[in-house]
Amino acid sequence: MGFDARIIDDVNLAKLKALGNAHVLSIVTEYAHLMQPDKITVITDEQNDIAYVQRKAIETGEERPLRLEGHSIHFDGYSDQGRDKVHTRVLVQNGNKISPHINTLNRDLGLAELGELMQGIMTGKEMLVRFFCLGPLNSRFSIPALQITDSFYVAHSEDLLYRPGYSQFCHLQGEADFFCFIHSAGQLDANDCSRNIHQRRVYIDLADNRVFSINNQYAGNSLGLKKLALRLAIYKANREHWLAEHMFIMGIRPTGKERVSYFTGAYPSACGKTSTAMLPGQTIVGDDIAYLKVWDDGSCHAVNIEHGIFGIITGVNSKDDPLIYKCLTTPREMIFSNVLIHEDQPYWLEMGREIPETGFNHHGSWKNGDLDPDGKPIPAAHKNARYTIRIHELENVDEQTENPDGVRIDGIIYGGRDSDTNVPVAESLSWNHGVFIGAALESETTAATLGQEGQRVHSPMANLDFVAIPLGKYIRNHIEFGTRLSRLPRIFSTNYFLKDDDDRYLNGKLDKKVWLLWAEGRIHGEYDAIETPIGFLPQYADLQRLFRELLAKNYSEEDYLKQFSIRVEKLLSKLDRIVAAFRGEDMPVEFSRELRNQRRRLQKCRLKFKQDIIPPSAFH
Ligand code: SPV
Ligand code: MN
Q1: In angstroms, what is the span from residue 201 Cα to ligand 1's centroid?
Q2: What ligand has the least distance to the C-alpha of 290?
Q3: What local confidence, expressed as pLDDT, does residue 94 receive?
Q4: In a shared domain, residues 103 and 177
Q5: Which residues of 469-616 form beta strands (DSSP E)?
Q6: Mind telling me the catalytic residues?
Q7: Ligand 2 geometric centre to CA of 288 (Å)
Q8: Smallest Cα–Cα separation from 498: which of 515, 484, 481?
């Protein structure tokens, strides 16, 4: 197979050939034949090429310019506003199941279906061939990634979110050691949104390090390097003994002390991961995906594989998120998606300003009170509306973000959206207990995935949607990772979403700063803690001081008791759910031991105290 000279010119062909990589050439040829674009454009790391993508995103209509310089808006279709879990499948040989929780499909069937759906899908369109680097340049963490797409929005988003990687492909010296993503938005409708949503497919082909994504635009479905690459990375990490996680990385900097401690944190989508990494006074390395490795000195190092943020905009306001808010309201290159546009300005839900009664949104022309075809009111903006920016646009970006060695991790946090069970912060009793806490993470579903919101679901390490290996093996990898570390990070749990009986949140949005600074202080031996059946809890006096110093808030003992008392029955029921969730998985003995011990400790304290809700002071 060769290239048809009518669809690729000499300049673009030369850019491809200069890589000296037969694998890249054969992939591009194969998919050009299948998808039949009118034209192939190869994008290198050169500024001209990158600017071409941004310009064409506007010219083609996939993005529209807004009032502020560099700002644009992209709309995803009305039914393409979140990750599509149903049509995202891992292709497996011979119909093997990976795990009861992982959506799989026979590889031959999947590839055959794709062959049909992708036939001629790029007719009339331009095929972009792009090269990126997952992770800092010239780093042993990093993985080169080839992206083929016909969406200028996808290609432009990836410019903002990922490091350019044409040079990294040159360093491959012809090897096939890269990830590959093939995307087509398919036919577009009058609003430049994917028309054939009913044929939306995201198929992960582990055998070939490839992911196919068609008939969609929402970034969680379309951008190869985001959640599609995470699935390939988890599979690769499993073979190579490292971890690919749904985690932020941040530097925690206690005031008045000359130190920084780096933490990673895993939270399900829309549960405060970005806002934690963006806490005032701290620094951000990344907000979504981290690779973790055992470093030469026995410590744990991590890198952010991205260099941008695809963040939820709902609720971003000048008071709670001053840094992001400032970015969103000043000129810079950035993309809004699925917000309301009125007189070329973006408006989003809970932005702390009045939202106009009319405008243009993810449903088209909109006025307050409009109903969708199902008779449901159309909100001004989608709850999962987002912004896409380069991380270096932020004032609080950490100076180590591009360090090829990453940063040394001293703390790991697991946090879910849990209204009635877990305390706001606790430190695990040991590494294995911490892994157990991560594995037992539950959270209520949000608008980040299609389907019903507010359902309590189990998501080990907030990563269930992306795990492409048996769950038991995934958990075992975390246990083993700890055995290879001589300097173990401490593991913490957080819960920002605890509510009282009247359904009111027990904590303010910025209280998380106290939990994080307490955790950081624990690492440095600055706070004594109360050992309880569920882990080490903070003492009231320490929190009282932290609240005063960090938030100028008077933290009452009554609030402490409401928030930090141990809800024994709720915790025991949670354990029953976790047992059920892992049924059918081959769990490591260490996990089963932690589960048994956790249950035993809770039962013992129920017997001893003869009450359901036990204040931390009972354990002094
Ligand atoms: C998430 O949903 O976890 C996100 C956004 O970070 S995306 O995965 O791209 O949908
Ligand atoms: Mn995410």
Answers
A1: 17
A2: 2
A3: 79
A4: yes
A5: 490-495, 529-532, 535-538, 566-567, 613-614
A6: 271
A7: 5
A8: 515
pLDDT tens for 380-429 read: 999 999 999 999 999 999 999 999 999 999 999 999 999 999 999 999 99
Residue with CA at minimum distance from ligand 1 atom 4: 269
- pLDDT on residue 42: 98
Q: Which residues line ligand 1 (CB under 6 A)?
A: 83, 219-220, 226-227, 269, 288, 310, 448
User: Is 576 domain-assigned?
Assistant: yes
Question: 469 falls in which pLDDT band (50, 70, 90)?
Answer: very high
Residue 53 domain boundaries: 10-62+87-240
Half-sphere exposure of 395 (CA within 13 A, CB side): 13
pLDDT bin (cut points 50, 70, 90) of residue 1 is low
Nearest CA to ligand 1 atom 10: 220
Asked if the model's pLDDT at residue 503 lies above 70, the reply is yes
Nearest ligand 1 atom, CA 448: 2
- Per-residue pLDDT averaged across 312-321, rounded? 93
Q: Which of 339, 354, 388 is the last residue of a domain?
A: 388
Nearest ligand, measured from the Cα of 223? 1
Strand segments (E) across 2-125: 39-43, 64-65, 71-74, 88-92, 104-106
Tell me which H or E stretch contains 337: strand 334-337
Tell me what pLDDT residue 540 has.
98
